[in-house]
Amino acid sequence: MFDIKEELKKLPHQPGVYIMKDGDMILYVGKAVDLHNRVRQYFQSSRGKSPKILKMISRIQEFEYIVTSTETEALVLENNLIKLHRPPYNTMLKDDKQYPYIKATIQEAYPRIFSTRTMKRDGARYFGPYTNVGAVRETLELMTSIFQLRSCHRNLPKDIGKERPCLNYHIHRCMGPCTGKVSQEEYGAAVQKAVAFLEGKYKEVQQDLEKNMREAAENMDFERAAVIRDQLQNIKTLMDRQIMEDAGSEEDRDVIAYAAFEGRALVQAFFIRKGKLIGREHFFMQTGAEENGSELIRAFIGQFYSGTPYIPRQILVMAEPEDREALEKWLSEKAGHRVYIHMPQRGEKWNLLELARKNAQLTLNQFGERMRQEEKRTQGAMQDLVRLLGIEDEEMPPSRIEAYDISNTYGFLSVGSMVVFENGRPLKNDYRKFRIQTVYGANDYASMQEVLRRRFSHAFQELKERQEAGKDIALGKFTHLPDLILMDGGKGQVHVAEEVLREFELDIPVAGMVKDDRHRTRGLYYHDQEVDLAGHDEVFHLVTRIQDEAHRFAITYHKKLRAEDQIQSVLEQIPGIGPARRKALISAFGSVEAIQNKEEEELAQVAGMTAASARAVYEFFHKNPEEA
């Protein structure tokens, strides 16, 4: 029995992370400079505590804590646990986007420039982030036509002259350093101009192009002059996109402001690079137990910058987080340079922040109603579902629903699907698929038993491994148990699930998605009764989305296995073509039909193929067309 009063006495005066729990459910994750003082505050006087904090405290049955060496370590651990468990009382960043960067591999002898979503300390130059993927694509397209840098992965100068130049060389989109006709100095000069272009120094490139256009016109090369004219127009369009300049500084900085309403917040971020606004983005956040601006900004910085590869030297914020120094230290270590968090009070920086705040409010006004509607169809539908089924604790509806389906063709290649919805939204990273191993023929009940037993066996195995490793928090995907299980079927499927849950001594509610004669959801089978969904539109639409997703995921996996099985059954009939060569052929050409249409010489070029094996494949398809 967990005695909160006694456990509070044992708390150490050390930094760390604390985890508030209601049974197996994690309610809140927080960090503390002093665990003893911070955790005790929750259970002292209620004066000054918000209704949401008081509500959370009333649910706490126990707490855990993890001691760390420093406050920075506690901050990192807190962010990881929040992202992993998504506790309902934490302030949560709903958007989990990775923005593209443009990478210039200046550490190479013959550099390349391309887009990437990862950033490494490899000596390359990175530009961004860019919030508009289409703009990145257009910029790279324009740069290819102007600077004609290579995009291939050849090892230069080692591979110079070894292979024929690619198509880009012949259509004048690459200088062709692989031919050996371009010196490293000449190519490097083009790279320097391209990097300057990415730095926003468009005028230099513009002047060079205008000079080239005049020369082309004077030489009566009007076709080339027209091409350069179009390039100049594209540069002008790109320059016009830079809608704002921060004339006071050439530094990289992010500007973060927010507008809040009804337990939600919209955070507006401006990304300024070399004094120019290259993009902006808004993020929706669900505010947690701590509802003040300082906590909101702290949560955003922790969650957003833990997943972005580039961090500027300066972050301007609308409210200063209490643990600013710890955040700065963490960000600096992650970025590899000093990072400052600053809340300006006046001047140009304050103007930038005020502009971001006004944009946040305008965006909120624009999307506020849409957010409410989205909340109604997701979290609101979950609450209605709880009330409809009579599940206890209506104030805190199930956050995780798992749905299961079986797919087969007359018992052939049976597969199972597990889809996960959290707070009414699909959580695709947690989807799982199962190829049935112990059931032969079309037996959906037995197949479902196997799927569920494997699913919960994985959960207990992951938990056991974590405990044996001396770690209290389970990190495995299967370890997250559902709050509600939905079966793609009625009474029989529900009873199958309940039987498996009893084997594992788990108490999880199970409902079946009952379909009408046209295979459409009409109700839920729960506690041996059918619950009619008529008149409960949002619940009906939520259940239908879950059912369709479970069915789609199962069918997609089944089709994939059927295709692979058909490919293997054909290719394995060819003498001398084993698993490695089958895989190489499919990897090279994509399908049996494509392999069938290839000439013997093309087949011989595939890795691992010999002249004899290529001849065997060619003769198999052309001498025995019936078998193909």
Assign a percent range to the helix content: 40-55%
- Unreliable residue runs: 241-248, 624-628
Largest sheet at a glance?
Answer: 8 strands, mixed
Molecular shape: globular
* CATH architecture type of the largest domain: 2-Layer Sandwich
CATH class of the largest domain: Alpha Beta
What does this structure look like?
There is one protein chain. By secondary structure, the protein is of the alpha+beta class. The chain folds into five domains: 87 residues, 3-Layer(aba) Sandwich (GIY-YIG endonuclease); 141 residues, no CATH class; 123 residues, Nucleotidyltransferase, domain 5 (2-Layer Sandwich), CATH 3.30.420; 179 residues, Nucleotidyltransferase, domain 5 (2-Layer Sandwich); 52 residues, Orthogonal Bundle (DNA polymerase, domain 1). The chain is 45% helix and 19% strand. The protein has 20 helices and 20 strands. The strands form four sheets. Strands 13, 14, 15, 16, 17, 18, 19 and 20 form an eight-stranded mixed beta sheet that branches. Helix 11 links the parallel strand 11 and strand 12. Helix 14 packs parallel to helix 15. The C terminus is likely disordered.
Core attributes:
628 residues, 6-stranded mixed sheet, Nucleotidyltransferase, domain 5, globular, 8-stranded mixed sheet, 19% strand, GIY-YIG endonuclease, alpha+beta
In short:
The protein has 628 residues and is α+β, with helices and mostly antiparallel strands. It contains 20 helices and 20 strands.
